[in-house]
Amino acid sequence: MDTHGYLHQRATVEKIKAVAITINTCRFSTHTSGNTSLKTLNVDDNGMLWFFNLSAQAVNQDDMVKIVYYNQKDTYMSISGHADVFDGNQLIRVHPENVLYWDSNSRRMIPLLNDDIA
C-alpha cells in the first residue's frame, strides 16, 4: 500500500478525474452496508475522491469501501479503498487502492491500480 497516501501514477489520477467528473454520481458501498448514490465533490491531485454525505456512519463502522461509476454507453470504473470521515461525519475521503476500468476499445477490464501486487 502507498505509505504516503498519494497515487503516484499520474495517468491513473487523470483517468479517475475524467470518469468522476463526466459521470459525477456513483454507487458507494461498504462491506457491511448497502449501496447508495453519491455525487462526487472532487478528485484531488493526489487521487483522493471526496464526497458529501449527511450520514457517514457506515464508513465509521467499516472503512473499506467500493465505488462504481458507469454510464449506459461505454464507461465503467470500479474503485475500492479505505475511507475517512471529516467535518462532523459530512465529508468522506476515499483513498483508492484498486481501480479497474472498462476499456471499450479492447472490450476488457484494465487494472489501473492494484495495491495487492504493488
What does it look like?
The chain is an alpha+beta fold. The chain has one domain (10-114): Electron Transport, Fmn-binding Protein, Chain A (Pnp Oxidase, Chain A), CATH 2.30.110.10. It has helices spanning 10-23, 57-61, and strands at 25-30, 36-43, 49-52, 64-70, 76-86, 91-103, 108-114. It has a six-stranded antiparallel barrel with strand order 1-2-3-6-5-4. A hairpin with a 5-residue loop joins strand 1 (25-30) and strand 2 (36-43). It is globular. Residues 1-5 have low confidence and may be disordered.
Question: What can be said about this structure in brief?
Answer:
The chain has 118 residues and is an alpha+beta fold. The protein has two helices and seven strands; from the N terminus they run αβββαββββ.
| Strand tally | 7
CATH architecture: Roll
Strand content: over 45%
So how many helices? Answer: 2
The top-level CATH class is Mainly Beta
Q: Please give the largest β-sheet.
A: 6 strands, antiparallel, barrel
CATH topology: Pnp Oxidase, Chain A
Roughly what is the average pLDDT, rounded to an integer?
A: 84
CATH homologous superfamily descriptor: Electron Transport, Fmn-binding Protein, Chain A
**How far apart lie the N and C ends?**
7 Å
Instruction: Output the radius of gyration.
Output: 14 Å
Order of helices and strands: HEEEHEEEE
Principal-axis shape? globular
From the helix content, strand content and strand pairing, which structural class follows?
Answer: alpha+beta
Low-confidence stretches: 1-5
Strand order of the largest sheet: 1-2-3-6-5-4
Count of all domains: 1
